[in-house]
Write a sequence for this structure.
């Protein structure tokens, strides 16, 4: 299977090509995702010697995350999918983050600003893929749901920003946390391939971002 994956939910602008199990990937940190994304995709396709229409599907990090970043990622995905008549697999950006953490149980968190985090709870299944244990949400660090059991590991920009509060709140269920973790397109691709094989692909027009915190979008519209 040949699949193009991308994620722009955080400071990482990241794209990958899944080529029957092997992966080509490029990641750049910082702002200006709108300017970076298409040239990165073009470079990857050129490196692989492929045209977009030769792919089987696209996968994109559908959020949660940066409002602007999610709009860019979804917009580019829709445009590419329409142009090449390809199906799209939406992948949680929090799940992609968790997929890249070397731990079986992960508490993924992005800094949502406003003293809040986007939060997801994941457990790795028998074939090595992260599965959500509850619905993703947005919480203050001292109000995230405490998972059952022990040996959970935290990761994501939410941990970088609020690790002291999260550690205090989660207590003994937490075994540790990983610094400077962001989602990577290779893990979006890994989850995207599994989603495609499970029949989760959608049409281009349905490839929409998931913000979770709706009031962020509302405030942007009023500005």
């Amino acid at each position: 299977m040949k699949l193009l994956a991308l994620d722009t939910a955080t400071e990482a602008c990241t794209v990958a090509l899944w080529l029957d199990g092997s992966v080509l990937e490029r990641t750049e940190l910082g702002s200006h995702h709108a300017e970076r994304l298409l040239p990165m995709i073009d470079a990857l396709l050129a490196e692989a010697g492929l045209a977009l229409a030769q792919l089987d599907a696209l996968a994109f990090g559908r959020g949660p995350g940066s409002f602007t970043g999610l709009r860019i990622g979804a917009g580019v995905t829709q445009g590419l999918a329409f142009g090449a008549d390809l199906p799209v697999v939406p992948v949680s950006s929090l799940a992609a983050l968790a997929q890249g953490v070397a731990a079986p149980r992960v508490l993924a968190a992005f800094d949502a600003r406003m003293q809040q985090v986007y939060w997801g709870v994941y457990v790795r299944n028998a074939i090595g893929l992260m599965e959500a244990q509850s619905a993703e949400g947005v919480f203050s660090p001292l109000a995230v749901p405490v998972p059952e059991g022990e040996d959970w590991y935290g990761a994501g920009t939410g941990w970088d920003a609020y690790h002291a509060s999260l550690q205090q709140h989660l207590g003994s269920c937490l075994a540790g946390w990983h610094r400077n973790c962001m989602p990577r397109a290779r893990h979006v691709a890994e989850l995207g391939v599994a989603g495609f094989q499970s029949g989760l692909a959608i049409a281009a027009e349905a490839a929409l971002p998931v913000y979770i915190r709706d009031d962020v979008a509302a405030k942007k519209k009023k500005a």
The first helix runs from residue 33 to 48. The two ends are 43 Å apart (CA to CA).
